[in-house]
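Write out structure tokens for Transposase zinc-ribbon domain-containing protein.
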Amino acid sequence: MGNTEKSKAKAKFTIADFLKRYPDDDTCLDQIFKLRYANAECCKSCGVAGAKYYRVRKRKCYECGECGYQLYPLAGTVMEGTNTKLTLWFFAIYLFSSSKNGVSAKELERQLGVTYKTAWKMGHLIRALMGSNDLPLQGIVQIDETLFGGKAKGGKRGWGAAKKTCLFGMMERDGRVKVLAITRSWIPA
């Protein structure tokens, strides 16, 4: 690998890069729409495969070109019902993800130019999202279990084997995955 390739591989996502990628609220809303509905195979209302969605002017929603069904990308997110600009939300998330030691509400207040109350609430919601993955899986969910722990010498195989951990996995069709380690007492004898 040459020096230019190494420097490109180590390139950071800077504030200048952020401002180029997310210059306004419309761009941020488009990004949320792409992230949430990129894998949608068909319209939820009319069922047309590969239906095109178009942005509705002066509203934070998209409309199916076939039937007029409206999707609201912010529904079910921490940004739903907020009056704070999406660019400020995105910048706050950028600050959290690029900071080693976290971001205080006072720092968000200074950087975003919002009130302390707004900065505190934004920080609180972002921390809650970063800290837990307890959001319920949606849509079609596939589940399976497996034993993990290698092969024991001279012992039983499969479910009767000692010192193995049972892993229980769940996966959405859109890709989110949850894996839980099940204690030995839960495994059937």
